[in-house]
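Long-time lurker. I teach an intro course on protein structure, and each term I like to show students one example going from raw sequence to a predicted 3D structure in token notation. This year I'd like something fresh instead of my usual example. Would anyone be willing to generate the tokens for the chain below so I can use it in lecture? Attribution to the forum is fine with me.
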Amino acid sequence: MEITGSSAYYAGLSAIQTGQNRVDQAASQIASTTAERSATSQSSDFQAERLRAVDRSQQMDLATSTVQLAVGKLEVELGAKVAKASDEMLGRFIDTYA
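-- Reply from a regular --
Happy to contribute to a lecture. Here you go:
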């Protein structure tokens, strides 16, 4: 009998990595939004409008970023549970203590 890597285990690891990437991207977006708001509160109205116009089309709003952060967190947690369950099942199929 040939035993190969568990596809469920690797799916769990992939979910962890995808979730971590989502968290990183959302956190970066939140940080840049916060930095922009800080910059605009210290500059003139004209300069603030120019700053907002440059990347308005590329920015997600703060609520969306916060939701993406929560989704990424859940994705990492669920990926870890899948990987752990797969690892435990493989241990049950093969008696490693015999």
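Some talking points for your students: The chain has one domain: 7-92. Residues 7-42 form the longest helix (36 residues).
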